[in-house]
Amino acid sequence: MNSTRNGPAETPRRPVIGIVARTSPVTLHGSDLVVSLALQAHAAYLAEAGCAPVLLPQLPGVERLVDRVDGLLVPGGPDIDPALYGEAAHPVTRAMTPDADRVELALLRAALDAGLPVLGICRGMQLLNVLHGGSLHQHLPDVTGHDGHRPGTPSFTLGRHPLRLMAGSRIAGVLDEDAPESACHHHQAVGRLGDGLTVTAWAADGTVEAVELTHHPFAVGVQWEAGYTADRRLHHAFAEAAGAAQKFGVPSGISRT
Fold first, then answer.
1. Where are the domains of the chain?
2. How far is 221 from 203, CA to CA, in rounded Å?
3. CB–CB of 159/175 below 8 Å?
4. Which of 102, 168, 202, 251 is the most buried (most CB within 10 A)?
């Protein structure tokens, strides 16, 4: 048995990953409620990769919890308020939650400032872009001329698109295969790219499918619906980055206060 001078060695703590909750009305036992929830696959994939996932509610001040987690996952969700990037709402921009947008942006900024690994999925990638001064195409068919990125509306059907990856990028290292593809369901996408971000994956029609924050250990956004398929590679790469950040500490010059 491993031991220290004062007794048995402590078991290393599992990296804690904060998953931003979504809120939704539900009916439970005959009562109408609003609940905080997360896609079970996000929690399951991170847990099997050795992390301890926790839910972070969309409440003001939640950004103060960044010193309690080792990584942040921002999942898919409703459209972002276009006022945040200086535009009026498109007629089909829907389900906007401006208060939640501002809570998530504050949380995302705090996590990045603290040097935490960050994974943004669908809306999460779009928030990453807006946070850095970028904009969104509010209705992608207006740009691409087709609805292949969100087929089967109103049912939730995943579109499949071949991906072109930037050689040497982090996402290329994760999707190390001959013919990578996305599994997506979205009607918005990155328009003007935010400052400090690099596009590292594209669909054949030019839609931005992945971005990475330059000079950050791990800040990756993907447009596809990671978590809606059995592909765990992105979650596991994120978990590995969180474990490394926990083991070796945050980069010099970055405060975790």
1. 14-245
2. 14
3. no
4. 202
DSSP letter for 87, please: -
Cβ atoms of 190 and 129 within 8 Å: the answer is: yes
| The token pair that represents 162 in the structure block | 């071949």
* Least confident residue range of 3-17, 42-56, 221-235: 3-17
DSSP class of residue 73? E
Give strand pairing partners of 72: 18, 118
Nearest to 133 by CA among 109, 99, 100, 103: 109
Q: How much is the pLDDT for 118?
A: 98
Of 72, 85, 79, nearest to 194 by C-alpha is 85
Instruction: Check residue 43 and give its pLDDT.
Output: 98
pTM: 0.89
When the candidates are 3.90.1720.10, 3.40.50.300, 3.40.50.880, 3.30.430.20, the CATH number that belongs to 14-245 is 3.40.50.880
